[in-house]
Amino acid sequence: xxxxxxxxxxxxxxxxxxxxxxxxxxxxxxxxxxxxxxxxxxxxxxxxxxxxxxxxxxxxxxxxxxxxxxxxxxxxxxxxxxxxxxxxxxxxxxxxxxxxxxxxxxxxxxxxxxxxxxxxxxxxxxxxxxxxxxxxxxxxxxxxxxxxxxxxxxxxxxxxxxxxxxxxxxxxxxxxxxxxxxxxxxxxxxxxxxxxxxxxxxxxxxxxxxxxxxxxxxxxxxxxxxxxxxxxxxxxxxxxxxxxxxxxxxxxxxxxxxxxxxxxxxxxxxxxxxxxxxxxxxxxxxxxxxxxxxxxxxxxxxxxxxxxxxxxxxxxxxxxxxxxxxxxxxxxxxxxxxxxxxxxxxxxxxxxxxxxxxxxxxxxxxxxxxxxxxxxxxxxxxxxxxxxxxxxxxxxxxxxxxxxxxxxxxxxxxxxxxxxxxxxxxxxxxxxxxxxxxxxxxxxxxxxxxxxxxxxxxxxxxxxxxxxxxxxxxxxxxxxxxxxxxxxxxxxxxxxxxxxxxxxxxxxxxxxxxxxxxxxxxxxxxxxxxxxxxxxxxxxxxxxxxxxxxxxxxxxxxxxxxxxxxxxxxxxxxxxxxxxxxxxxxxxxxxxxxxxxxxxxxxxxxxxxxxxxxxxxxxxxxxxxxxxxxxxxxxxxxxxxxxxxxxxxxxxxxxxxxxxxxxxxxxxxxxxxxxxxxxxxxxxxxxxxxxxxxxxxxxxxxxxxxxxxxxxxxxxxxxxxxxxxxxxxxxxxxxxxxxxxxxxxxxxxxxxxxxxxxxxxxxxxxxxxxxxxxxxxxxxxxxxxxxxxxxxxxxxxxxx
Amino acid sequence: xxxxxxxxxxxxxxxxxxxxxxxxxxxxxxxxxxxxxxxxxxxxxxxxxxxxxxxxxxxxxxxxxxxxxxxxxxxxxxxxxxxxxxxxxxxxxxxxxxxxxxxxxxxxxxxxxxxxxxxxxxxxxxxxxxxxxxxxxxxxxxxxxxxxxxxxxxxxxxxxxxxxxx
Lengths: 800, 166
Ligand code: FES
Ligand code: FES
Description:
By secondary structure, chain A is an alpha+beta fold.
C-alpha cells in the first residue's frame, strides 16, 4: 500500500468500537455521588409512607383499628386493605398453561393474610419517623389459620388451602415426556436416585425498593418514580389495576441500585403509593427498609429436585426422570406468573448434555411465604446444580474422572444447531472447548498438585467444576411456548441525531449496572462514524422512551443493542443519501467515519456529519428530493427465529474445607465463558464476576430460614449473610467467541450466566475435598458450616 | 422526642448549623437537611457500609449515629473528593479505569473506605485490601475489579509521591 493510500485509509476509517474494552461513560457521576436514585429525589410538599405488615403467616383479618394512628400528630392518612380494595384491583398475572390456578395479590391485604410481611395498612405522615411511630399504633386483629410453611406441608393430604377456589396447593402442574425413558431405565447399567435441595435466597440489591408517586388532579395524570428494571411494564400494570388510561401514567426509573431480576416486578407497594398520592393530591414517597426487603420483596430459587439417572458403564447418561417442586410462596407475581421456575427448570435440566430420553413432572407450590420471582439465572442455578451433581455421581459410580464423563455427554460442536429433547434450539456453542479451556486457563494441573501437597499435610482441598448452557435473549416464540400472558419478545430504540450532530439514543431497556450507556453508544457510534463522546444513551422515562419490556433475562445487549444498531443504520442511510447528493457521488460509495461522510478511497471528498445534521434541520432546501428533514429512526428488534440464543461456560474452583468447623474457603475460581461476540469485554468480565459472587453467596451463605409457623428468622444482614470481599477469591475469566447465527453481530446474552455455575462447582469441590473421609453426595445448598459437618459425618459413615 | 436541637457540623469544609430532632440519624441529616445524597443507605443495620463517611479522620457508618452525636465534628462525604468529572481523585479514576463499579450504589462508601485505608497503608497487598473493604458490601462487582482499582490507585499515588520527591 502506498503512503497516500495508507493515509486515506487512516482518515476514512474508524477503529470499531464494537468489541473494544472501553471504560464506562456513566462512571464519573456515580463516583462523585451524583447518581440520582429514587431516595435522592425530593418533591415539594412530599409526604412519607410506612406500611403496617402482617405478623402472621396465615390468618383472617378480623379487624383493623386505625383511630390512634390517624389522630397521631403529623399523620395525614391511614389506609386499610378494605379501603384500598375500592381504589385498586389486586395484581393478577395468569398463565395460559392448562393446569394454572390464579391468585389475587392485593395492594394491601384485606380479609386474609398469606405471609409474614404482607402489607395490611399504610400510614402517610410528614416524615418517615412519624409514619413509623403511627404505624405501630395501628391495631390489626387476626384469627389464625394453620400455616403452610414448606413444600412438604403444602402437598401432604389434607393440607389447608391457601386459595379457597383451588383444588390443591399447586399454581401449576407440568408434565413432559420425550424419547423413551422407560427403555433407557431398563437398558441402563445402573440408575442413580438423587435428591437435591436449593434453599430460598434472593438477589438483595444494595438499594432497597422505593417509589414516589405524584398525582395532578387538574389533568388526572400520575407520575411514579420507582426503582424498577421494567418501567413500561409497570406503567401497563398500573393502568390495569388503577383503571386509569395508560397515557395518563408516566413511570420514571431513575438510577437503580441493583436489580438482578428482583426489581423486575409490579409491586403492591407501588400501587398503594400511587393510590395514596391520588387520594391526597400530594407527592408521596416510600423507601423500603432492609427488614421489609428481606420479609416482603421477592424471594427466589427454592427448589427440591428428585432425579433418577440412567447411565451406561462408559459414563454416558441415557435417560433422566425428574420430579421438581418449587416453593413459589403466597402469590403469583406480575408479569412473570409463578410458572417461571418450573417451566425453565423442566426445559433446561438436561443442560449441555446429549440426553434424549427425559421425563419430568414439575410443580409450582403455594405456601405461606414471600412470593418467589426471577433472580439472575432463574431456575437454571437449581437445574444446573442437579445435572452437574448427577454427572459427578455417575463418574463416581463408573469410576471415571468427572471431566471425562462430561466430555462423553456434552453436545459436540458438529451437532449445532442442536434441538434438545425439550425442544430448545441450541444455536451454537463451545461446550467442549470451554471445559478444556477452563482446565488449562484455571490451571487444573496446578490445583491437583496443591491438593496433593495439602493432603499430605492433613488439609482438605477439593476441586470442582460445572458446565452449563444458558438460553438468553428469549424471544417471541420462546415466550409463546411458555404460556406467559405477555410476550417479552422485542425491545426498542430511537436514535436521534440533533442539529449539532450529536446523538441521543432512547431505549426501552433499563441499565442498573450493566453499562448500557457505554455499550449501546459503542454500537451506535460505529454505525454513524462518530466518536463515542457524541452519543448519549437515555432510558427509564416512559414519556421519553419507546415502549419495550426492560432489562432482564440477559436480553438487553442482544435485543435493545440490536434495536439501537438497526435504528442507527436507518439514520446512517439518511446521512449517506444526503451526503451522496451533496458530494455528487453514488450512495454506495459513501462511508461514514471520523465524524465525516467520505467518498470511498478519497479523503478529500468529504463533508462533516455535523454540517449534514445542521442542514438537515435548518437548511431543508439542501435535502435530496423526498427526504424528510428529521434525522431520527425507531426500530424494534426480536432476533429470528425467536428461540433465543444460547451462551455457555465452564467454571472451575479450588476450595479448602475445615472438617472441624465446617468452614469452606474458596482459594481459586476460574471461568471460561462464551457469549458470542462481545460488545465490550471489560463489561462482560464485570458481569461474570458479579454473577459468580452472587452464585457463591447462594452456594455458601445466603438463606431465608422460615420456622414451621411461617415466621422468617433471617430479617437482618446479621442473619442473612452476604458475601464480602474476603469471601470471594479473585475471579479469573477467559473467553471464547462462538457467534450466534441468529442475532445481529452474533451477540449472545450473558448477564446472568456467572450466577449459574458456582453452586454445583462449589458443591462438587466440597465433595472432592471430603473424599479422604469417604464418598459423599453433597446435595444441598447453601453449604453452611452445619451442613458441611453433616456431610463430613455422612462421608465417614459411608466409608465405614 | 420531637424537640429540635441545634447541631453544628463542618461538612466538606463548610460550616453548617442544622436543627434536628434527637433521634434523627446522621445519614438522614446529611441526605435530607444538607441534601448531600451521595451517602447511601443500604441496611440501616450497620452491616453494608453504603453509608460510610469520614468523620474526624475515621471511617464511620452514618446510619449507626444520631446527628446530635456528631455535634462539632468535621465530616467528609463523597461529594468532597472531586469538583467534577474531569477532576477525579486517583481512587475514583482507578475505579473508572478498572471497572470497579456497576450500579454505583455501594460506590461512594467503597471509595471513601478505600481512600482512608490507603492513607494508612499506601502499599497494601491484595489480602490487606480485601480485609480493609470487608465491611463494605458490593452486590454487583464480585470485588475482583474493586481490588484491582484500589491496588492501581495505590500504585499511582505512590508514583506521584515519588515524582514529587525527585
Ligand atoms: S446503611 Fe449503614 S451500614 Fe448499611
Ligand atoms: S456497584 Fe452495585 S452494589 Fe456495588
